[in-house]
Model the fold of this input.
Amino acid sequence: MGSSIAVAIVNGVPKPLPSDPRRTLLDWLREDLALTGTKKGCDHGQCGACTVLVEGRRINSCLSLAQLHESDTIETIESIGSADNLSALQKAFVTHDGFQCGYCTPGQICSAKAMMQELAEGWASAQTQDLTERPLPTPEELRERMSGNLCRCGAYSNIIAALEDVIASDASLQGAQA
Amino acid sequence: MRMTLADMYNTPDERNLLDTMKQGIIGKPLDRPEGPLKVTGTATYSAEYKLDGCVEGVLVLADIPQGTVSTIHRDDVVAMPGVLAVLADEAMVRRSTQGTSGKAPAQDVQTVDYFAQPVALVVAETFEQAREAALALKIEYEGAGNPVPFDPESADAEVETPSDSKPVKGGDLEQAMRDAAFAIDVDYDTPGHASAAMEPHATIAEWQDDRLILRGSYQMLAFNVKEIADCLSISPKKVRIIAPYVGGGFGSKLGITHEAVAAAIAAKELGRPVRVVMTRQQVFQTVMRRSETRQRVRLAADAAGKLIGLGHEALVSNLPDEDFAEPVTQATEFLYGGENRLLKVEVARICRMTAGSVRAPGEAVGMQVLEAAMDELAEKAGLDPVELRKRNLPAKVPVEGTPYSSRMLVEALEQGAAQLGWDRRKPSPCQTREGDWWIGMGVASAARVNVMIPAEARVTLNADGTALVETDQTDIGTGTYAILGQIAGEMLGLPISKVRVVLGDTSLPAGAGSGGSFGAISTGSAVMRACEAIRKKLGKKLGCEGDALEITDGMASHGEKQCSLIDLLDGEDMAEIGSIKPGKTFKDFSQASYGAFFAEVGVHAFTGEVRVRRMTGAFGFGRVLNAKTARSQCLGGMVWGIGSALTEELAFDMRDGHLVNHDLAEYHVPVHADVPALDVILLEERDAAASPLQAKGVGELGICGAAGAIANAVYNACGVRVRSFPLTLDKIIPHLPDPFVSPA
Amino acid sequence: MKAFALDHATSAQGAIHALQHGGTVIAGGTNLVDLMKLQIAAPDRVISIRRTELGEMALDGEGLRIGALVTNADCAADMRVREHWPLLAKAILAGASPQLRNRATTGGNLCQRTRCGYFYDTTQACNKRDPGAGCAARSGFNRIHAVLGTSDSCIATYPGDMAVAMLALDAVVLTEGPSGPREIPIAAFHRMPGDDPSRDNVLEAGELITAVRLPAPTGGIQLYRKVRDRASYAFALVSVAVDVTMDQGRIARCALAFGSLGTVPWRDPAVEQVLIGEEPSAALFAKAANVLLKDAKGLGANDFKIPLAARALAATLNEATQAGKA
Done:
C-alpha cells in the first residue's frame, strides 16, 4: 500500500480515514469528525437515520466500514444547509412540520435529496408501472422511495407534503415525460 | 422578587384569559422554533456532547431468563485492548423505572429477572473496543429455584388485581345481557408493543466533585433526577440532567433506565465521563414493553341500540412486584352509557421484560377493542355505526355520576364522516371491489383522559422587551418549544420572534415532563400563570389591574394610557415563576379529549394484505395551542394506529420469554408506504375545568381507537372480523371469499 | 465486532489469491457488517473487492453479464434490464430500501444470509450459525420460516428477492476459484440445509462470484409479486416471480419461482408442466399450486404460507396471463 494517508472527501474537505477497520462510516462521521447530524437509530440498516450521500448516492452509513471509502465524496446533512441558510428542502420540512422529535430528520432530508436525483435520472421504483418510462413523482412513488427512512413520530404525511412542495418548484423533476 | 400564584387548580378558571389577549398568536400554526436546528442536524441529542476524556460503555445482557450471576470472568476481558472496567455494581438496575415513580427501580444485577436483562457494563476507550469486549464477557449463572412462567395464559401464572386499579361495578350486567335486544360477548387480544423511539436510550455521565451531570434522553426530568439519586443514594440536589432535545419517547423514557445508572456508576469509578448508548436490540429487549392484552367485551343494547349493560375485562401482564398494569378500561369508564357494568383489569405475573407505559397506556389497546366490539353491535342492531355511538353518549359518567367538562364527540363523528364521505359506505361487507382489492370503511371513537401534573416555569420579561421562558420541561417532538413561546407571547403581547424558550435542564424550574399528554396543559399553565404575575406588575406600573392591561407587539395600554414594555420596565428585568397542580376540577369533572376516526381500507382479495387508503381524524381537545404541532401530534397517533392495527407485534418465545423480533427489521413500525395522506380536523373547544389555558391533552389522542376504525373497515371491505390484533394477512386469508368471484 | 485485518484487492485474481490464505470477501457490506456487529460472522481477515474490475455490466452473444460488484440499484436502473429482463428489476426494487440497494451488490445479495430470528440471536441455538447446536426455531416463533426444503436441522429461508427472479430467468452464476472458473446454474447455487445448514450455497473455499449471466430475453410477461407484513422495507412472507408467454389464449411457456417459501429460492419444473399448453383458469392455478405445495410442511405459525403461496400464485398468474392475452 502507498505511504500517503487514505482520505475521504467529507463535505468538500479531505479527512483522514480512521485506523481501526471496525469503525463504520457512521461512527467515523459522528465520533471522529463530530458531524453528529447523521444519526444512529439502529446501527443495522433498518431505519435510515444514518443516511448520507456517497458519490451522490444515498446509503446507510452504519453498514459501511469507513476504510472502504478511500477517495469517496461524502455529503452529510451539514453540507445541505445551515440553520440561518436553509436549503429549499429543509425550509419545506420546517414549513410542513415534516418532523417532530427530529431524530430521523437529517436522514429523511439526505434521503430525499438523493431520491430527487434518482427521479431526475428516471430510476424506477416498486411503484413504477412501466419500467421503460420515466416515473412521475406521484405521492405513491414518493412514499415507496422514502420507505427506507422510518419516522416513529409519524410525520410521514407532512414529509411527503414537503417533498411535493419542493418537487413542484423544481423544473427538472417535472420533466417526467422526458 | 418572585411570587407564586395559588397553584392548586380547584375551580375552573372561566376568565379565559388567552381569548382576551390581543397578540393573536395563540393557536396559530407557527413553525417550530427549533425546526432549523433539527433539519440541519445541529440540535444536540444526548449522545452527541463531546466531553474531554469520555469513554464508552456497552451493556452486557443475561442469556438466561431467571437466576443468579455466579461468576463473571472479568480478567479475560479486562486484558483486551482498551478495556478499562467491567462493572456489575449492586446499584445497577434490573428493570426500567415506571413513569412518575421518582424512586429507584429494582436494583442489583446479580439477580436476573427476565431474559436479556442487563447484568454488567464493559467500559473501554473506544466504542469498538467496548462492543467487542462486551460480547466476549463470559458470565456463569445459577438457575432460579422457583421459576415464574413465561406465558400469561399459563395455569402457573399468578393473576392479581393491580393495586391501583379498582374494578367498576354497577347494576347487574348478567341480567342486562339476558334482557338485551342485541348482545355482544366477544374476546379480543392485542399483542405487546414497543415504543421504538428513533433515538436509542443514551446517557453521558460526568461527575464534578460530588455532583453528577447527565446528558440523557429522558421525558420527565424532575422525576428522573430523584430516580437516579435514589439509585446512587445521593441527594437529588447533587444531580443535574440536561436534555434539550429528545429523539422521541412514547413512554420508554419516562423513567430512568439501565444505561443511565450504569454510566453514572462507571464515571464515578473511573473518574472520567462515560457514555453508554444502548443498541437498538437492547432497547427492544430491556426498556419497556406494552403488555399484551386479552379482553372480553360485553355489550347489551335495547331495541333502540342504547346500551343497558357494558362489560370490559382485561388480562394483562407484568413482572412480579411491578405496580404498573396496562389500564385497558380507562376510557371505557366514561365513554358510553350502560349502567349495568363490570370493568376490570387483572395482571398475570410472568417472566418477560418490564411492562410499562407505551404511548397512550390503556386507551391505545382498550379503545381499539371496545370500538371494534361496538362495530359488531352496530351490525347486530342494524344501526349505522356512527349513529350507534351518538345514541350512547351519557349525560353523566355512568355509576359515578360525574359531569363531563366538555365533549365534542358528536361533532367529531359528524365532521369526520363528512370529510371521508361516510355516506358512500355500504352497510354490508363485500360490496365494493376495485381490481383485486375489496374496499371498505370503518369508524371508531377516540377518547383519552386529560391529566395534569404539578409544574413550574419561569418567565422573564427582559428589559429589552424580549421574554425568556425557562423550565425543565422536555420537548420530545411534541411541540413544547413552540407552544410555550406562543402562550408567553400571547400573554405578554409579544411577537413570537421576541420570545425565547429554554427547556430540558433541571437547573431550571421543574415542569411536568412529557408523558400522558400532560406536558402542554401542565407546563403551559405554569407559563401562563407566570405571565399573569408579570402582567399584574406591569398593570401596577400603568395603574390598572393585570387583566385590564392590553399589550400588543410590546406596547402596553389601558384606556388612554399607552407605554412600551421597554419604557415600563425601565431597565429592569421582570421574572416570575408560575406553578400549577391538579386540584378539585379533576375530581369534579370527567375530563377527556375526544375524537373520531374514519378509515377507508383495501383488502387484497387473494393475499389478504390490508392497505389504508384514506383516513380522517377529527379531534376536540379544548383550545388548540398551535394548529400545526397539534395536527402533527394527531397525525403521529394515527400512524401508530395503523401500526397497531396492521403490523406491530412483539413476539416472545414461550420457552424462555425472550423477545424474538428485537430489531426494526422484524418489529414492523409503519413505513412511508403504509401511510396515505391523512386528514386531521381540529375542533375548536374551550375547557375551563381542564386547565387555565382551556386546553386538554392531545399527544396521545390520535392513537386511541384508531386501530379499531381500521379493523372495522377491514370487516366492511371483505367480511372478515379478526378479533386478534394486528390484522396480519395470515389471520385474514382463511376467511376470505373466493377471489375469483366478484360481487354481483 | 471482532478485530480483523482489512485488505483491498485490486483485481478478481488478486482477491482469489488473497482468499487462499483464508478470509471473507466484502463488497457492499450491507449484510456482512450487520452480521459482524453481532459476531454472527467474525472473520479475522476481510478482503474488499471494491477496487476490482467486477463492477461492469455487458451485453454479449450469450446474454447480459452482470458483474458481481454491480449494485442492486444500478442493476435495476439499467435500461437493458428494465426493457428485457424487467422481472429482475422488479424483484430488486421490491427488496430492502433504496439506501441498501445503492450499496448491496449482485454477488453479495446471492450470498445474503437468512433472517431467522434464532440465527440472528447468538443466545439461541442455531445449526446454521453454530453447527451441531440444534435448531431453536423449529419449536419457537417460526412464522417467517420455510415450508419447503426444510430439514430437522434447519427451517430458515433464503430471504432475498433478486435471486428469486434470477431463478425464474435461468441465470448462471459465474465464479472463479482455486480450481479455475465455474458456471453454476442458479438453480444449483443455493443449498438446501439437509444436515449441514451452515453452508448456504455451493461456493467452495476461496471461490469468488465474478458475475451473473442472464440468458437471452424470453419476451414474456414478467411480474414479481412480493407479499409482506408492511407495504415496503420488509422481507417477504412469500414472493412469486412469473415469466409467462401466451399463445392463442393458452400458456405457451412459463417460469415460476418463489421466495421465502422454501429454504432456498424455489422453482419446481413440475408446476410449470401443469400450466404449459393450458388455458388459464382458477382451477388450473389451483392445480399448479397443489403440485407446488404437495410436500409443504408448516410448523404451526408458518402454516399460513401454504395457502398464501397458492393465493399469491393464483393472483400473479391471473394478472400475467390476462396481460399476456391483451
In short: The CA atoms of residues 87 and 222 of chain C lie 5 Å apart. Chain C has a mean pLDDT of 97.
